[in-house]
Design a protein that fits this description.
alpha/beta, eight-stranded mixed sheet, 10 helices, globular
């Protein structure tokens, strides 16, 4: 995702709706209690964490840490709350540099639509190991949403094949979900997590549908999560947006009810819920 926090915050409806549903269906499997220390990995500008997750936590939790690789997004999130129990920490979860004070510190770790941005498989596995290491032993819990097959990934791949835009997509493999071309994504992730030591209660593929009110609204969110947009020069910006829009409009899983009306968006994800053994 790029650092356009304001644009993302204004168009985060899909992410909040998905997180709400997944929390309502799976939070019962975790041992959330007063005094818990909690982390949201890839919290971004804070919309999902503060508007969806926070109200569902125990009233007297001890600490909630919003973690993200982007300092710009975290700075935006900091201005959204003055709760002294909420902290913000810049960290790349895909590296091995976890602070010692975070090891075996958290009771619960959540992540919504973020771990799929770690496309390099070795870094992806390292991220899961880091999460395991940060959880307290004897029942620390996880709840993730990991995107797998999403029209945006196909759009980026198509643009990367063009002579015009190929230079801007050199790191494409690093940010496209490592599960997008896997036959059974949930099985691959399940094997990874169980090898690390997690005991899973839920690990399933889901086909999802979200309705955007207009194409322009959908296009704004497509831009807000586009990690390549920042490399486009001001002179190229208009042309890039035009080509980006053309690719989105012709994708078979972006369905227009009419020219100016709602857009049906089909995508796939994995929902994971489990405990540290």
């Amino acid at each position: 995702m790029n650092d356009d926090a304001l644009r993302y915050s204004k168009h985060s409806g899909l992410h909040k709706a998905a997180a709400t549903t997944v929390l309502d269906e799976n939070l019962k499997f975790l041992k959330c209690e007063d005094g818990d220390c909690i982390m949201d990995v890839g919290a971004g500008e804070g919309s999902v964490t503060l508007e969806v997750l926070f109200p569902k936590l125990p009233n007297n939790f001890k600490k909630l840490v919003l973690c993200d690789v982007s300092s710009g997004l975290l700075d935006f999130a900091k201005n959204r709350t003055d709760d002294e129990r909420i902290d913000f920490f810049e960290m790349d979860i895909g590296t091995s540099a976890i602070p010692d004070h975070f090891r075996q510190y958290f009771n619960q770790i959540f992540s919504f639509h973020s771990l799929n941005w770690i496309g390099d498989w070795d870094k992806h596995v390292q991220a899961m190991k880091n999460i395991f290491d940060m959880l307290k032993p004897g029942g620390g819990g996880i709840l993730f949403i990991v995107l797998t097959r999403v029209p945006l990934f196909d759009v980026w791949k198509n643009l990367a094949k063009t002579e015009k835009w190929a230079p801007h997509f050199k790191n494409l493999a690093e940010v496209v979900s490592p599960y997008c071309d896997v036959k059974d994504p949930a099985d691959k992730l399940k094997t990874c997590l169980e090898n690390i030591g997690f005991v899973l209660r839920v690990c399933k593929n889901e086909d999802c549908l979200y309705t955007f009110p207009t194409f322009q609204y959908f296009f704004n969110i497509a831009l807000s999560v586009n990690p390549f947009f920042e490399s486009i020069s001001e002179a190229e910006c208009a042309e890039y947006e035009q080509d980006y829009e053309k690719e989105l409009r012709k994708h078979p899983k972006v369905v227009h009810e009419n020219e100016n009306g709602k857009v049906l968006f089909l995508y796939e994800r994995i929902v994971v819920c489990g405990l540290k053994s």
